[in-house]
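Our working data are protein records whose layout never changes between entries. An example says more than a description, so a record of this kind follows.
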Amino acid sequence: MARVVQAEAFMVDLPPKVVRHDAIQSFKSQETIFVTLRDAEGAEGTGYSYTIGDGGPAVLSLLQHTLLPALMGREAERIEANWRALLFHSHATAVGPIMALALAAIDCALWDMRGRKAGLPLHLLAGGAKDRVPMYTTEGGWLHLAPEALVDDALAAQAQGFCGSKVKIGKPHLAEDAARLEAVRTALGPGYEVMTDANQSLTAAEALRRVPMLEALNIGWFEEPLPSDDIAGHARLQAQCRVPVAVGESLYSPGQFADYIAADACGIVQADVARVGGITPWLKVAHMAEAHNMAICPHFLMELHVSLVCAVPNAPWLEYIPQLDDVSAPMAREGGMALAPTVPGLGIDWDWPTLAARTAPGSRFTVTGV
């Protein structure tokens, strides 16, 4: 084993490929925070996390002034110990998004380093359940799009081999949501999976009003119908809904997922590796879900999640939202199937000159240890 002796971090803004509006927000820019770690033997590993337009400098500040200095001199291979030590080093800022996003960049870098040193890709290092996974696309399902555009995108995805599409809901009136979903279901047929996402926009009453419509259209899941801290509301809704309620992109610790599962408040968990604090806690959530006979269908970050969903047996889907194509080689896929990377580590082939050129001014820093 070798100790961590240096870290370099910086941030890159990645504008969205298309206009992305949901019921509560717009995706302004992916503030992408990178951390590269080096150990005393010269091994390296790179991790990253992200925001959707705000908070990136706060994540960098926590890394620069608190977490990365605390990591210096620690054994790189002791990933679990490092994750817990850093969490409790600044426990006053946990549990929450800034802490989770900062921890995730470090944790992913340590897993990347471990994979590179072991000569193993992440999906094998973390379990090796499969080497490919079906994808569903969200990129053509945004809330501002007309029903005709939703249908055109879903038909094009189906022709490419995709097995499903996610459609944003949360329009002011139930009839508007129904028209959008009915158009896609009619055009794509009963064998194509259609998921929905309300992005925490509905009241309990409005969510319940949509249940008969979702059930009639055989919708794959009802994602984030209510605010994420309303566990009791989600439990009441799930008890009255034959469509699985999906939650997770706005949860920031394994314990929050445990609370949802214990309350029977969801049918699918959607842990986001960046927002839950890294690969280490993501795997805890995935295995927790497996122990409860529940699927994990992660949110966003397909280039990283492809390895994780192939590592565990209970991850049937990968969400397709391309965002890194300008700064890395495209994720490997065959039609609508995503392929697990086979190179050691995270398996993301970064375009380092482009990242350097697009680094936010003043964001790059280096931390060194003994």
User: Anything to note?
Assistant: The chain has a mean pLDDT of 96. Residues 275 and 283 are 13 Å apart (CA to CA). The chain is about 40% helix and 20% strand. The radius of gyration is 20 Å.
